[in-house]
Amino acid sequence: MATALRAPSTVAQALQHALTAGLERLDAQRIVGGVLGRSRTWLLAHDTDALSEADAQRIAALVARRAAGEPLAYLHGDQEFFGLNLRVTPDVLIPRPDTETLVNWALDLLPSDRPCRVADLGTGSGAIALAIASQRPLADVTAVDVSDTALAVAHSNAQALGLAQVRFAAGSWLAPLTGQRFDLIVSNPPYIAEGDPHLPALRFEPITALTAGRDGLSDLRQIVAQAGGHIHGNGHLLLEHGYDQAEAVAQLLRDAGFTDVSTRFDFGGQPRCTGGRWRG
Ligand SMILES: C[S@@+](CC[C@H](N)C(=O)[O-])C[C@H]1O[C@@H](n2cnc3c(N)ncnc32)[C@H](O)[C@@H]1O
């Protein structure tokens, strides 16, 4: 019979409590350190320090949530992306390091010495739009999402980071951008197939940010079909996709009239982003 874990009363007991619940040491240290507002080094030097009852209860509650599989980013309410500290809630996907591949590609294409127009479709926490805006202060960036709650998170991140040049628009893909053209459109849309065996591991994240039809390509298809009418001649469309979708996305881009279609790889060596140039 499982015995209930009692709330810890010292720093060392708090760490042990988390390990006993099945957490990895780093997660245990982040939770205890996060509640106490202390670094990992401090925890090591103060392992016999007593915890207040309130801190002990908070740690026990967070350990239970982490042990049930909830991502650390939702427990802390923030996630680092491209050097920015972003607020995240269960209304938004937790930004992934692999998405920095898309940002780096965008930055390679965007001038730093003159204005340009960029759209980020499916902005979620605002990760891509805000990373680009932080690196290209002259860029006029518009971030779109169909989820009002996600847009509220993205907007609060823009304000917290002082990136006021980012605008936000609610709606589906390019629908809220009628009549507008951009030098660059970027998107990390949902691209997981419905029924994919990895979905249960992602159950804490919004399903609307993850799945896209039976083959995972339905949103990518829509974006490619709509994007040409919103890109200046010689502008670009860059898309993040699943590790096994590069060829399918490249074909969609060629069929839609994009040229110079190529793929970039993520930090793990997987084909992660495919993009092309709009002939205009
Ligand atoms: C994979 S998440 C990417 C979030 C963020 N760009 C990132 O990279 O962390 C996909 C996002 O697309 C949004 N989305 C889903 N369907 C959409 C649609 N039809 N139009 C606009 N945004 C949509 C979701 O709400 C979600 O925020």
Strand-residue proportion = 15-25%
Specify the CATH class of the largest domain: Alpha Beta
What would CATH call the architecture of the largest domain? Answer: 3-Layer(aba) Sandwich
Secondary-structure-based class equals alpha/beta
Strand order of the largest sheet: 5-4-3-6-7-9-8
Distance between the first and last residues' Cα: 68 Å
CATH superfamily of the largest domain: Vaccinia Virus protein VP39
* Count of structural domains: 2
Tally of helical segments: 10
Report the count of strand segments. 9
Give the CATH topology of the largest domain: Rossmann fold
- Residue share in helix: 25-40%
Describe what you observe in this structure.
With 280 residues, the chain is an alpha/beta fold. It is 36% helix and 21% strand. The protein folds into two domains: 59 residues; 190 residues, Vaccinia Virus protein VP39 (Rossmann fold, 3-Layer(aba) Sandwich), CATH 3.40.50. It has a seven-stranded mixed sheet, sandwiched between helices. Strands 1-2 form a two-stranded antiparallel sheet. α7 links the parallel β3 and β4. The termini are far apart. S-adenosylmethionine binds next to α7 and β4.
Quick recap of the structure?
With 280 residues, the chain is α/β, with parallel strands linked by helices. The chain contains 10 helices and 9 strands.
